[in-house]
Amino acid sequence: MLEMYMTRLHEFTVVLYAVSVLLYFIDFLHNDRRANRFAFWLLAIVWVLQTIFLFLYVKKTGRFPVLTIFEGLYFYAWVLITLSLVINKLLRVDFTVFFTNVLGFIVMAIHTFAPVQVESEVLAQKLVSELLLIHITMAILSYGAFSLSFVFSLLYLLQYDLLKRKKWGKRLIRLGDLSKLEHMSYVLTVIGVPMLILALILGLQWAFIKVPDVSWFDSKIVGSFIVLISYSSYLYLKVRKQVYGKTLAYWNIASFFIVLINFLLFGSLSAFHFWNT
Fold it and tell me: Cα–Cα distance between 166 and 154 in angstroms, integer?
């Protein structure tokens, strides 16, 4: 029972870390100090929990956790989190902080959900199943954000067309102004992209554990990375190239069609994606 509680606490720590990475991503794009502060304090909670786990493990085994690869991964994750907190607090190098935390999340996820480190075989299998569940949930949430972003882009184009043709009326007022529609589409993409990144990290780990002979050129894997590249390009055009208006809306709509192709077509062609755990 104690092992199960500790496992749940580890999983909760991974979720907190995921939220922290999401907030750091928002800060990375917009230099949002409020998001940075929330991300920092969430990461501080993660660090405290990780430190407690580390102390309990040292107390239990009577040695420092570096003798096996999975012990080393745990300590490595703790070091990355510690360095990230120090950099965030003292050096203010946000670019480094974000990517350090992405790497730290990968390492922590590998350690937390790897079944070889769990003494109970039943619990190990349960962990793998829960890893898949978290992966699917995060992927669906990211697709949900992309779907709403697509809707706002469609409304933007509709509103733009009504204004261009001078079709004044209640419909024009109810659609909202163009800047708000574009902003909401962008915000939802900002939420969806890091969630998709985290979902891909967990999904690849699940595939490595459960289907070790899977081809990394599987249609679903390739399609998911195409989706990520497409939406990342959207953010790049918006933030770095200062692209606005119809061009950005069309890019967003095209990206969503890639999501649909990946979800409906590539999923059915995948050699492993619909397997049960």
Answer: 18
End-to-end CA distance of the chain: 23
| pLDDT band at residue 169 using 50, 70 and 90 as cut-offs | low
Give the HSE-up count for residue 255: Cα atoms under 13 Å, Cβ half-sphere.
Answer: 34
DSSP the chain: -HHHHHHHHHHHHHHHHHHHHHHHHHHHHH--HHHHHHHHHHHHHHHHHHHHHHHHHHHHHSS-S-SSHHHHHHHHHHHHHHHHHHIIIII--HHHHHHHHHHHHHHHHHHHH-GGG-S-HHHHHHHHHHHHHHHHHHHHHHHHHHHHHHHHHHHHHHHHHHHHTT--SHHHHHH--HHHHHHHHHHHHHHHHHHHHHHHHHHHHHHHHH-TT--TT-HHHHHHHHHHHHHHHHHHHHHTS---HHHHHHHHHHHHHHHHIIIIIIHHH-SSTT---
- Which tokens go with 174? 């109810």
Which residue is it, tokens 């991300």? 39
* Contacting residues for 174 by C-beta, under 8 A, at least 6 apart: none
Q: Per residue in 172-201, pLDDT tens?
A: 555 667 888 899 899 989 989 998 998 888
Rounded to two decimals, the pTM is 0.65
The per-residue pLDDT for range 107-158, each reduced to its tens digit, is 787 777 655 444 444 444 555 566 677 777 788 888 888 988 898 898 888 8
When pLDDT is cut at 50, 70 and 90, the band that residue 232 belongs to is very high
When pLDDT is cut at 50, 70 and 90, the band that residue 47 belongs to is very high
Tell me, rounded to whole angstroms, the distance of Cα 112 from its chain centroid: 16
Residue 94 CA: distances (Å) to CA of 21, 47, 184: 12, 18, 24
